[in-house]
Amino acid sequence: xxxxxxxxxxxxxxxxxxxxxxxxxxxxxxxxxxxxxxxxxxxxxxxxxxxxxxxxxxxxxxxxxxxxxxxxxxxxxxxxxxxxxxxxxxxxxxxxxxxxxxxxxxxxxxxxxxxxxxxxxxxxxxxxxxxxxxxxxxxxxxxxxxxxxxxxxxxxxxxxxxxxxxxxxxxxxxxxxxxxxxxxxxxxxxxxxxxxxxxxxxxxxxxxxx
Length: 210
Hints:
The chain has helices at residues 10-18, 38-48, 53-56, 60-70, 87-98, 113-118, 121-124, 141-148, 157-168, 172-185, 196-204, and strands at 2-4, 27-30, 75-79, 104-111, 131-132. By secondary structure, the chain is of the alpha/beta class. The chain has two domains: 2-132, Rossmann fold, CATH 3.40.50.300; 138-204. It has a five-stranded parallel sheet, sandwiched between helices. Helix 2 (38-48) packs across helix 4, helix 9 packs parallel to helix 11 and helix 10 (172-185) packs across helix 11.
């Protein structure tokens, strides 16, 4: 279980971590809608495993059997924004995870997900690890940004730290926006790099609520 406040880089962090797994371990992600009903959740899970969701969505027993079979494979299933899933649907995930033949590990991520899981205590009690990653500390900003995007490889630490102090304030989503604006601004300044002027221009594009 990965916990973070909104915009602090939860999704990037979990994908980085999952990328460290041996390649023989399949990693799948279920794209789940906001407040999905059980048929929608079931369809998202079927799609994640490459199963025929359209053909199985309205065939409850067959879909459940197909998912239980799919969960027999040693793999990782990632579900992001789990805070948008209601308790009954979370309990469906618990039923799949509890099947005796299951070898798939669930990774559940979401801002405030611990409050969501509190409404599904049977699933919460089965969480092996709760991981909370806070907003970026200033000392982490240069190294993390250079891992995130090559644009920042040549940027001076002082420029990055100034932009973080005055604009991003450790929020990774804000840094993603700054990166997008800075990258676009380079088209107007060919031959230049990521310097303080570029960062100032990018930050100015964010408006009053970066």
